[in-house]
Amino acid sequence: MAKGYTVGQGYGLKANALDGAVKAGPVSYLPVACVTGAGRANVVSTGLPLLASLGAVDTTTSSTTGSTVKSSVTSTVAGASVLNLITLTAIKAQTSTTRPTRTSPVTLSDTSQFVGLKVAGMPAINDSVKPNTTVKIPGLGSVTFHRVAKTSNGIRVTMVYIVLDRILGTLPTGSVVEIGVSETGVR
Questions:
Q1: Which of 6, 13, 18, 73 has the least C-beta neighbours within 10 A?
Q2: Cα distance between residue 113 and residue 98, in whole Å
Q3: Are 142 and 18 in contact (CB under 8 A)?
């Protein structure tokens, strides 16, 4: 007998204007099945004109709703560049949320990582950057690396979270760009 249901989603790239209007993506988007299931979505490459280019994006999801309820999402990006100010060899956004029984506490897992992370003029920002590290990058805006948000029944990781401080292409000032997103939860 199922002990609840699962939620979540993963994607490689998304851009929203300040008012919330979606300007691009989500790319390689895949939701978690609310009952037991698995899925995969991928694209060869993607990007945002005048802002970012990404290599292959692959998103996988899985869920179980038997005696244990578990939601898992992995979103990988093979190479990325944001205005040549941020470069990456690879990104893996990977989370899971598990509840063994209906009355058990929820276990949240984040095994996300960067490979080859470099930020122009900021050598301290590298593969081992601490979660929720935010820096101002001139000509781009505010950037949070490995942004983690937790609730009592879920977790959301955005590996690169950018709030633009100027107009870039079709994106107005204040737009939010997300690269490498994994979100899981159980209900």
A1: 18
A2: 20
A3: no
Q: Following CA atoms 58, 64, 70, 74 in sequence, which dihedral angle do they give, to the nearest 10 degrees? A: 0
Residue 63 burial (CB count, 10 A) = 26
The residues with which 97 forms a beta bridge, in sequence order, are: 71, 108
96-144 confidence digits (pLDDT tens) = 999 988 788 999 999 999 999 999 999 999 999 999 999 999 999 999 9
Q: How far apart are CA 24 and CA 174, in angstroms?
A: 15
From the list 159, 143, 136, 172, the residue with the least C-alpha distance to 24 is 172
Helices and strands in the chain: count of H runs, count of E runs = 0, 18
Amino acid identity, residue 102? R
Among the listed residues 8, 183, 185, the one whose alpha carbon sits nearest the alpha carbon of residue 107: 185
